[in-house]
Amino acid sequence: ARREGELQRNLAALGRVAGGVAHEINNLLQPILTFSRLAAERADNDRDREAMETVLASARQARDIVRTVLEFARPRNLGGIGIIADPVTVIDKEARVAADLAPGMKLTLAHTPAGNRPIVGTRAELGQIIANLIKNAREAMEDGGEVAVTTAPAPDDSALELCIADTGPGMSETTCARIFEPFFTTKEFGKGTGLGLSIVYGIIRRWGGTIRCESSLGAGTRFILTLPYTPETS
Ligand code: ADP
Ligand code: MG
């Protein structure tokens, strides 16, 4: 519990610093994006055009990274924790959308109907959680693989239990221990920001839920989340 409080405080502090830096960089990127695009369009020879397209591509990549950081740093409306009446419907839809981005990947969905009762949360953030977890599965499994999404009431019936399991390469114990830290990534620069799982962690904790990861090298990865039902329905 103490380590968790510490992690939450670190997250908040890091978010503020990173958000400030990201905001400034975002402003500086605007003229680079605009004028490199114009210069590429107006170039009268291939060499200059290719050079400007390279600048533009780098600036776009930087903008995408900055957007992820800004999203992470965005102050959340703490009073605004809502209710999702039909969470399984949202999970099912978001999983299909996220899996569509990897045509070679197989998606299986299995839901226990009794699980689909109102939970604490917002649809947009639940969507963000699913998108982040399936994106990671997709990125871990280069060609194909399988993702299984299952939902059921937790054994004590206080929460919806959501499992997202993939058949990817899994993680070492040292990686597994750090995945929820902001900016922890094993991906090369430009491919990963290391913010996806810390965003997911922050949302789940705010809802009073839990997230844990079971993974080992060669054995795939499984994320198990508990999403608390609202008091009336638990
Ligand atoms: P990013 O995806 O930008 O690296 P994340 O916070 O989403 O940041 O994930 C952190 C790290 O956790 C990843 O770099 C990867 O090493 C590991 N990871 C997350 N999900 C999986 C998965 N499904 N399979 C294997 N490794 C994973
Ligand atoms: Mg990620």
From TrEMBL:
Regions annotated as coiled coil = none
Q: What superkingdom does the record give?
A: Bacteria
Q: Give the originating organism.
A: Elstera cyanobacteriorum
Q: Which residues cross the membrane?
A: none
Q: What is this protein called?
A: histidine kinase
Q: Identify the residues that the record assigns to the Histidine kinase domain, covering every copy.
A: 20-231
